[in-house]
Amino acid sequence: MKLTLDIWRQLSPNHAGCFERHELADVSADLSLLEALDQLNERLISAGERPVSFEHDCREGICGSCGFLVNGQAHGPRTATSVCQLYLREFNDGDSLRIEPWRANTFPLIQDLMVDRSALDRLVAAGGYCSTGTGQAPDGNALPVGREQASSAFATATCIGCGACVASCRNASASLFVAAKLAHLGQLPQGQPERSKRAKAMQQRMDEEGFGSCSSHLECEAVCPQEISADWISWMHREKTR
Asked: Are 179 and 198 a contacting pair, CB within 8 Å?
């Protein structure tokens, strides 16, 4: 199949950026979009040109490293899919794809499609962990957890921290990300001692980092590759009053 890629190119935050057009011909529909970018980069390197910078790691939809906008939509048109798992068969032969980085002030651009998402790491460092001393690690089966409770906690623990929720929100809110981290630990026995402290610290840090507030447009839920429900944002707000 043949595709036209309009890719955002920007050498650094201090340089002006622009879209650069590249034509891909005779590419297999079974390639992922990242693999198509790999082929493009091989061609650019062979021609002595600078390859397109984009972040990736596992390419299995687990690590959350990759992510950018495809035709204005985070991770592209397929729901519950990270961009590394987006295959060219989702598009039609001859389509044009506009590829650009996350657009959020809290995710400053590094180069091309790469942005700095360390603000999410700082949110986790503010309280997204259990620090209660437990001594030697207990047996995994020693602390009973109800099946529904465990399943609900796991549903929020699946957040991969890709940042699509922030990039898609008109306010660049990190509410869904923070809510997922709080709900993961806040539903388990191990997370109870610091539950209130954790909720206040992470939400305060979210404001300090410059993330916007939630305005309930639910775009975060729509683009989340793990389909984490925005209902957890309401749960998060109630946590502050505990």
From this structure: no
Closest CA to 106 of 200, 180, 178: 178
Token pair 């109870």 is at which residue?
Answer: 192
Q: pTM (2 decimals)?
A: 0.92
- Averages of pLDDT over runs of 10 residues in the chain (242 residues) are 98 97 96 97 98 97 96 97 96 98 97 98 94 68 84 95 97 97 92 92 96 95 97 92 74
HSE-up (13 A, CA, CB side) for residue 137: 3
Rounded Cα–Cα distance for residues 201 and 232 (Å): 17
How far is residue 162's CA from residue 86's CA, in Å, rounded to a whole number?
A: 15
Give the residue ranges of DSSP H helices in 110-230: 118-127, 147-157, 164-168, 175-186, 195-208, 219-223
Q: Is the dihedral of CA 75, 76, 78, 79 positive or negative?
A: positive
Token pair 């590394």 is found at: 84
Amino acid identity of residue 215, one-letter, is S
Instruction: Say which CATH class 118-131+146-239 falls into.
Output: mainly alpha
Instruction: Determine the Cα–Cα distance for residues 3 and 94; give it in Å rounded to an integer.
Output: 5
Helix axes 118-127, 175-186, angle to 10 degrees: 30
Residue extents of the structural domains in the chain: 3-100, 118-131+146-239
CA-to-CA separations, 141 to 122, 145, 176, in angstroms, rounded: 32, 9, 30
Tokens at 141, concatenated: 């089966």
CA distance 159 to 178: 10
- CATH code that applies to domain 3-100: 3.10.20.30
Q: Kind and range of the H or E element at 23?
A: strand 18-24
